[in-house]
Automatic annotation (TrEMBL):
The keyword Coiled coil does not apply. It holds the Pfam family LiaF-TM. It comes from Massilia hydrophila. This is Cell wall-active antibiotics response protein. It comes from the Bacteria. Residues 15-109 form the LiaF transmembrane domain. The chain crosses the membrane at residues 12-29, 41-57, 64-80, 92-109.
Length: 237
């Protein structure tokens, strides 16, 4: 599982790096008056495409794939509209967002695994023997305290929203890997003082911040990896 996470992370970083290089070249050509800067700025919806592709490469759940695919589709539609190839009027087509979210919610209700939050939610959750979290916050906030004797990681996504996950009542048997994805949102993790936190995240106009005290040993390690795109991820104890 860890090898799979690492290989997928490298692929996502390659996609992200190439995308940033292409955007940089376009802006450079605009500054050199080789192309019009206005034309470059017209491709701003490509941010959604890039974020969606990164999410697709970096997720291991069907829900994450649906979210990534939705971001890619939205970016493509907005880009084609800016290029006057199609007429995609957001003021007319905005109900599609509700339809898409409804399909997303029906899927999660059928699988019963993911926690999709569009409102402020607080509470506690026993992860049981599974020890894996799989949470998505869209246009809202999610705040929950989870407890398990064998936390194994999982996936946390904040899309134009916020996630606050309290793990201080949990424990790790060795090492756990937690995938985070914050796009125009934030993720806050509260961990026990005996956990060693390793941040392997990639911030894009965002940030990863660790506010933890070093434990006496490294017997319990939490590896936090993923992306903060115009968002933030904070880990503290």
């Amino acid at each position: 599982m860890k090898d799979n996470l690492k290989s997928r992370g490298v692929t996502a970083q390659v996609v992200l790096g190439l995308s940033v290089i292409v955007l940089g070249v376009l802006f450079l050509l605009g500054n050199l008056d080789i192309i019009e800067t206005r034309r470059v700025l017209g491709f701003w919806p490509a941010v959604f495409v890039i974020a969606g592709i990164v999410k697709l490469y970096d997720t291991q759940s069907r829900g994450g794939q649906l979210l990534g695919g939705g971001l890619v589709a939205l970016g493509i539609l907005l880009t084609l509209d800016r290029m006057h190839i199609i007429d995609f009027n957001v003021h007319t087509m905005w109900p599609l967002f509700f339809i898409g979210f409804g399909v997303y919610t029906l899927y999660t209700a059928r699988t019963g695994r993911r926690r999709i939050m569009i409102d402020g939610v607080k509470g506690e959750q026993d992860l049981g023997g599974e020890g894996v979290v799989d949470i998505t916050a869209i246009l809202g906030g999610f705040e929950r305290r989870v407890f398990t004797p064998d936390f194994r990681g999982g996936e946390v996504t904040a899309f134009i929203g916020g996630c606050s996950l309290d793990l201080r009542a949990s424990s790790i048997q060795g090492e756990a890997v937690l995938n985070v994805f914050a796009f125009w949102g934030g993720v806050t993790l509260k961990v026990p003082p005996d956990w060693t936190v390793v941040l392997n995240g990639t911030p894009i106009m965002g940030g990863f911040e660790e506010k933890t005290i070093a434990p006496p040993d490294n017997s319990k390690r939490l590896i936090v990896r993923g992306y903060a795109i115009m968002g933030g991820v904070e880990v503290r104890n």
